Amino acid sequence: MERLKQKLLRAEHAEQSWKAGAEGERLVAAELARLAPHGWYMLHDVHWPGRPLANLDHVLVGPGGIVVVDTKNWTGNVTAHGGVLRQNGRSRASAIEGALRQGASVAGLLVPEHGTKLWPMICLAGHPDMRLATVNGVAVVGVGGIEAAITRLKPVLDPLTVAGLHAHLAQQLVPGPARQAGRAAEPHLKSAPAASPVPVRQPAPRPSKQSKAFWGLVRAVLIMAAVVTLMPFVITLLSRGR
Question: In this structure, what DSSP letter does residue 136 have?
């Protein structure tokens, strides 16, 4: 009985964590939408390359480069001092490592020239007023300051390159029917090998009514000609039989 209670508690805790995470992602996505007028493109809840069951919360492409945002809806006291990110005194080094791995997975889809213009970031949905901090190369910022943090990035990409990178990442990160069809990757981007087209067997065209009538007439003429040709032989055979 006690073991069953523990399982139920763990299930409830997991559900609460999932709901909190989903709400945090929604809040951050709404805040990131403010970047669109500044030339930024956004992808939300996309595939994590190399991790079939994992996702990336937000991937942004804009003048300041490529930003991979991992949303955390943590509670309690969060600090980032001396290169260590902590929540309620506990080290959150795993979150930093996760953000770095996410950034590396997206950079692996790009040529080195653009992969070096990628910035991993952790956004704290439950701490909107937290000031920007950097921990081992990962930016940590509250949701209330994420717009300013991203717009402050030094411009490194022109609008044409931004559009091309966004189209490329959309094709690589968004699975199945949600892919942006018809947007080919630019020559300066790494892309997955194109799939060979599958030949489709086309059904034979159905004959028209006029065609059917014509061939029916041809068959009738041929049958009549055969009868006329064979009739003398038939008569001869019948007369001999008598």
Answer: T
Q: Which of 73, 85, 120 is nearest to 99 (CA)?
A: 120
Cα–Cα dist 150/203, whole Å: 55
Phi, psi of 118 (to 5 degrees): -110, 135
pTM over 0.90: no
Tell which phi-psi region holds residue 213, choosing left (phi > 0), alpha (psi between -120 and 50) or beta. alpha
- Nearest Cα residue to 170 out of 184, 156, 153: 184
> Is the CB of residue 127 less than 8 Å from the CB of residue 39?
no
Strands 90-91 and 51-62: unpaired
Q: Tell me the two tokens of residue 65.
A: 């480069």
3-state helix, strand, coil in the chain (%, to 5): 50, 20, 30
Distances (CA, A) of 98 to 1, 58, 60, 101, 174: 37, 14, 17, 5, 20
Q: What are phi and psi of 186, to 5 degrees?
A: -70, 155
Q: Is the alpha carbon torsion for 90, 24, 149, 103 positive or negative?
A: positive
Task: Report the SS3 class of residue 67.
Answer: strand
pLDDT in tens, 82-118: 878 999 999 999 999 999 999 999 999 999 999 999 9
Q: Are the C-beta atoms of residues 127 and 142 closer than 8 Å to each other?
A: yes
* CB-CB contact of 184 with 164 (8 Å): no
Contact (CB, 8 A) for 156 and 64: yes
Tracing tokens 């006029």 back to the chain, one arrives at 210
Q: How far apart are the first and last CA of the chain?
A: 107
